[in-house]
Amino acid sequence: MFILNLLLVVLLGYTGFVTVYLFIFAAAGRLRSRPAPLSPDATRIRRMAVLIPAYREDGVILESARQGLAQTYPTDAFDIIVIADSLQRSTVDALRQIPVQVVEVSFDQSTKAKALNAALQQLPDRYDVGVVLDADNLMAPDVLHQINAAFGQGWSVVQGHRVAKNTNTSVAVLDAISEEINNHIFRQGHRALGLSAALIGSGMAFDYSLLKDLMPSVQAVGGFDKEIEMRLLSRGVQFGYLPDALVYDEKVQSEAVFERQRTRWIAAQIKYLKLNAGPGIKALFTGNIDYADKVFQTVLPPRILLLGTLAMGALVGALFGSPILLVGAGGQLLLLLLTFYLSAPRELARKIGPAELLKLPLLFGRFIKSIYRMKTARNQFLHTPHGAEPVSKL
């Protein structure tokens, strides 16, 4: 019994530390981000390359490319560049008619990192900023203007505010809320306390020379954004966040796709924990708090796993009369729910109904399954399909 109680205390200590960490940044997210100082060239119009890797994305890439051209940014100051990987010939021909630039690539094993590297090797060095989107992303009309302003403030890496393009299923609603909670905690909250915003794989912009110098060393099968984060933060490069630069992203619509996507994410998280644990601990003692904090984030459990574990712990504690579980897990569960309340936009929270609540245990189970499938994601890119069903914008 002593050993069991000791294990419970250790487990609750871990979940308690994680819950308090999330709450602190959720509370901080209610504050304003720290402004960056203006640089002498704050009003300069920078030339931008909007890079859109598209692997078998025939169903969505035409709309994304057309909508990308609708930016209010000067038309002669940006190019939409579709990196066509395994697209149908009819899709490639239609893209050239829009017109956007098309860079055709082909690999034995496709990854986003390979596609970006191939494109950067072919493109001229006339750009100042590289913007990376997913094939399903739709930018609000002023996104490039906001990125330009941020670079005028001295940033060399910024993350836009990725929001849901669709909430047409219960899974999509929960996925949309999950992303907004992460936006609030790991982007808005971190910037409010002077730390870097987390990158998310799309809707992000880089100084072009920095991106071109960095990408050849990025060979990730999955989670290339995490590798970029680790490499840049270890160098002392900070990331800004643009909460009003909206990039609409398609949320997963089914449990099967949810499991596939999370399998890729968990595999990447564990991979970069192993690679960066030692250097991250050293960084904590040498003053690179940004890098150390990013490495710490790789030991955080996904929010739905934390929620499910604490809920089950509190229930077991109540049923079997365990004060440690009932008080420890129950108290942490209340704090976690408060964290979600502070982080989730009200308009999305109002979409939660009985159907969404009933989905939570099923998605918790899918997450458990995704942990067992991690080996698949280590050596094979698990593509998340888009446009399988009609979607509606928020």
From TrEMBL:
One of its GO terms (molecular function) is glycosyltransferase activity. The keyword Glycosyltransferase applies. Pfam families: Glyco_tranf_2_3. Keywords: Glycosyltransferase, Membrane, Transferase, Transmembrane, Transmembrane helix. It comes from the Bacteria. InterPro entries: Nucleotide-diphossugar_trans. The chain crosses the membrane at residues 6-28, 326-344. Belongs to the glycosyltransferase 2 family. This is Glycosyltransferase family 2 protein. It comes from Spirosoma rhododendri. The lineage of its organism: Bacteria, Pseudomonadati, Bacteroidota, Cytophagia, Cytophagales.
